[in-house]
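Standup notes
- DV: blocked on the single-chain target, sequence here:
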Amino acid sequence: MSNPKPPPSPAPRSETVRQTLLEELRRGAATAWELSTRLGLRERDVTPHLEHLARSLRARGERLSVAPAHCLRCGYAFDDRRSLAKPSRCPECRGERIEAPRFRVDDDGG
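- DV (later): unblocked, structure below
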């Protein structure tokens, strides 16, 4: 038997994950999935970074804007949702075709 190959190590970064995430969000709005592919992270790992980034931005006079998720079947918008993760099912029609929330960085004044 041959020894199993060790998992590949991540590419070296000159910036932290959150710094890179912030730069991507300043370029324009993106979903967690789009951010995960750009940063080389799992989609589920992007959400905690977004939550932390939202707190950090407030201290700098900026904010993380969230265009809410919505159901593609009935149009229900998840306006009051606090979680940044994509919902799995619509509470109105029980549909599972949900358009993910989009994130961007804005100045706090606008």
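- Follow-up: Residues 3 and 9 are 17 Å apart (CA to CA).
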